[in-house]
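Example 9 (inverse folding). The structure is encoded as follows.
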């Protein structure tokens, strides 16, 4: 599932659910059985895309942007990304509105990235040219927790 949510009101403007398989088809009766014909006549398949799992997010983002004018009468001008900006690049290449929306990083993602970088920095140990590591002013586990929460 992918959704477009207004940043200020948290109102869900639009959403799309893409499935590259149908759970009922997977668990349904054997195609060679007598019950299959009756089941198939009543079954509504939920599969609505043939995209691979890795492309579902990209396809959903494009669908939401392409429908934004007809469904909501809106042009989305800013995309808040979660660090994986493949969706943004697909919107950028499609030029749905004739212009490229601005990309912003989600602050939670920025915190996560900075926290990860801080942990790596601590694990590398003493920088070259520094007499000691630790003490007042140095990065500690407690300080990292405080900065990233």
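The amino acid assigned to each position is listed next.
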């Amino acid at each position: 599932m992918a959704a477009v949510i207004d940043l200020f009101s948290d109102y869900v403007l639009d959403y799309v659910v893409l499935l590259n398989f149908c759970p009922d088809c997977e668990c349904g009766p054997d195609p060679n059985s007598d019950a299959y014909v009756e089941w198939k006549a009543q079954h509504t398949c939920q599969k609505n895309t043939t995209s691979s799992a890795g492309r579902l997010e990209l396809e959903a983002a494009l669908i939401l942007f392409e429908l934004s004018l007809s469904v909501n009468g809106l042009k989305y001008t800013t995309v808040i990304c979660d660090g994986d900006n493949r969706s943004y690049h697909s919107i950028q290449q499609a030029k749905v509105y004739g212009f490229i929306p601005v990309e912003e990083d989600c602050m939670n993602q920025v915190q996560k990235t900075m926290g990860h970088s801080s942990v790596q920095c601590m694990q590398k140990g003493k920088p070259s040219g520094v007499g000691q590591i630790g003490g007042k002013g140095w990065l500690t586990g407690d300080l990292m927790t405080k900065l990233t929460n």
